[in-house]
Specification:
The complex is a heterotetramer, with two copies of chain A and two copies of chain B. Chain A has helices at residues 10-17, 50-67, 98-115; strands spanning 2-5, 24-31, 35-36, 39-40, 43-48, 72-78, 80-82, 87-95, 118-124, 127-130. By secondary structure, chain A is of the alpha+beta class. In chain A, strand 9 (118-124) and strand 10 form a beta hairpin. In chain A, helix 2 packs antiparallel against helix 3 (98-115). Chain B has helices at residues 17-23, 37-47, and strands at 10-14, 27-31, 58-61, 64-66, 78-81. Chain B starts with 9 loop residues before the first strand and ends in a 6-residue tail after the last strand. Chain B has a five-stranded mixed β-sheet with strand order 2-1-5-3-4. Chain B has two helices and five strands; from the N terminus they run E-H-E-H-E-E-E. Classes of the chains: A alpha+beta, B alpha+beta. The A-B interface holds A 30, 46-49, 51-53, 55, 77, 88-89, 109, 112-121, 130-135 and B 14, 16-18, 21, 53-55, 60, 63, 65, 79, 81-87. Chains A, C: This is Molybdopterin synthase catalytic subunit. Chains A, C: InterPro entries: MoaE_sf, Mopterin_biosynth_MoaE. Chains A, C: Pfam families: MoaE. Chains A, C: It is an enzyme of class 2 (transferase).
Chain lengths: 135, 87, 135, 87
């Protein structure tokens, strides 16, 4: 299941990939860090080109299933305002073989960070910045 | 072989993240037409030099990352994609 | 947190490693498969040399923290009777860097399966067997 | 240097998994003493030949996997560890 939403329920994401025939599920949970490069983060704002983001997330799922011997993958990402400690992304992968599940889960988060059109703005006490936009 | 002629028409470009801040709006409308993604890119760099200072600037056409050589068609959905930072 | 218990609450295991300063959490969830080598599994029974199992699980946590740049690890394993689809083991790892979190999580489940004195008996329609005991 | 003399005493060995089924109990008591893990192992193989048919048989002493050369002391907690299969 591919989804962009305000809040992610981890149990639901795990549930969406788990069936009794698979032995292993791997999960990645990304959360808002309270510090970045030594500065205290007050909040993040996530913006998203939603239809394209969903397509890119579906592409990740499709390619992961081609590359690795996995059975199910779900990717959920938030939009809107998030505070330190809150969940940003949850990826769950179910497979018969755990090694493939680990590889596919890592591939998915690595690729998501490179290709999915979602942007985060970090808010500090003295200003805000779109992450990675400028050198 | 029929050669398609590009009409002069309003082209709306979706803006996100840093590009929205630079151009000052979430949609940029151009009353002009460009044969390729590369031509559109040149136009945007001329109009908004700050776009060239971004770490990268991809252009998506119909929700796919596009090469500069891609030809634009009327009705294409075009979006500027500054460096993504999801996850 | 290292724990051997009847039932594992995944949210609690994740919660036990998550703090707002870490950016990434990886989780492995092992569940009872409904088939093994073509046979339908009715249930599993997990037996455990508990004090030694806890020590070996603590050792995995300690060694994972030495080997990989991670901050927190929790390992929970069940004992007793389990049905297909039920959780057997949950491992959660929190780290600043997700690559280390993935590696440490995989290291932990691989090592657990080799060193922790826990045994499972598989029950089929026509008998039962201690897994991996005999050639 | 004082040489510790091993007393003849009941030694209780904890059994798990397949070893429990083979020996037929969850504790095996021996009214004998063995200098090393290897000697104990030999004794067990003689008494219960099926133990040799296991894929592996580790012996834990005081909750650590022990080498056959390890010397046993009175009061050691000894356990037979057939192939583990957690996870």
């Amino acid at each position: 299941m591919i989804k962009i939403e305000e809040n992610i329920n981890v149990e639901q994401v795990i549930q969406s990939v788990s069936k009794s025939q698979y032995g292993g599920t791997t999960v990645f949970i990304g959360t808002v860090r309270v510090h970045t490069k030594g500065q205290r983060v007050l909040k993040l704002h996530f913006e998203c080109y939603e239809p394209m983001a969903l397509r890119e997330m579906e592409k990740i799922e499709r390619q992961a299933k081609e590359k690795f011997d996995i059975q199910e993958m779900s990717i959920h990402h938030v939009v809107g305002e998030k505070l330190p400690g809150e969940k940003v992304v949850v990826i769950a992968v179910a497979a018969f073989h755990r090694k493939a599940a680990f590889e596919a889960c890592e591939y998915a988060i690595d690729t998501l960070k490179e290709t999915v059109p979602i942007w985060k703005k970090e808010f500090f006490e003295n200003g805000s910045v779109w992450v990675a936009a400028h050198p | 072989m029929q050669k398609r002629k590009l009409e002069i028409m309003d082209q709306h470009i979706l803006l996100f993240g840093a590009t929205k801040d630079i151009i000052g709006s979430s949609i940029y409308s151009i009353n002009d037409s460009f044969k390729t993604v590369g031509e559109l890119r040149e136009h945007l760099y001329k109009q908004f030099p700050s776009l060239e200072k971004l770490n990268s600037l991809m252009i998506a056409v119909n929700m796919n990352y596009a090469e500069d050589l891609l030809e634009l068609k009327a009705g294409d959905e075009i979006a500027l994609i500054p460096p993504v930072s999801g996850g």
